[in-house]
């Protein structure tokens, strides 16, 4: 059986011809991603997303971020707690001098 469809999206034509598993035209239930965690990475719907490693440069392919979704990507890869700001060891006088120099520049 061949079907020629003009002006309809292919999946809509499929459901019109073969029927849908639901009563509505489109199944609008959100799909929950399948997430598997390994020691070095997350696997989201079959897509490998490496975990961030502290103390080294981390880079990610934009296509992976887009495929996983930015919100989920940052939820998985981002730090779970705020990063501590280290004490740089400057005295109050040194901080005041640096602030003065910044205001002058």
Give me the secondary-structure topology.
Layout lengths: L9 H9 L16 E3 L3 E4 L2 E4 L11 H7 L1 H8 L14 H13 L1
Helix pairs in contact: 2-3
Descriptive account of the structure:
The protein has helices at residues 10-18, 62-68, 70-77, 92-104; strands spanning 35-37, 41-44, 47-50. It has a domain at 10-77. The chain is elongated, with a radius of gyration of 26 Å. Helix 2 (62-68) packs across helix 3. Helix content is 35%, strand content 10%. It has a three-stranded antiparallel beta sheet with strand order 1-2-3, with helices on one face. It is an alpha+beta fold and 105 residues long.
Task: Describe the structure concisely for a colleague.
It contains 4 helices and 3 strands; from the N terminus they run H-E-E-E-H-H-H. It is α+β, with helices and mostly antiparallel strands. It has a domain at 10-77.
H-E string:
HEEEHHH
Oligomeric assembly? single chain
Low-pLDDT stretches are 1-21
Beta strand count: 3
Strand content: 5-15%
Helix content estimate: 25-40%
Average of pLDDT: 78
> Order of strands across the widest beta sheet?
1-2-3
| Radius of gyration from CA coordinates | 26 Å
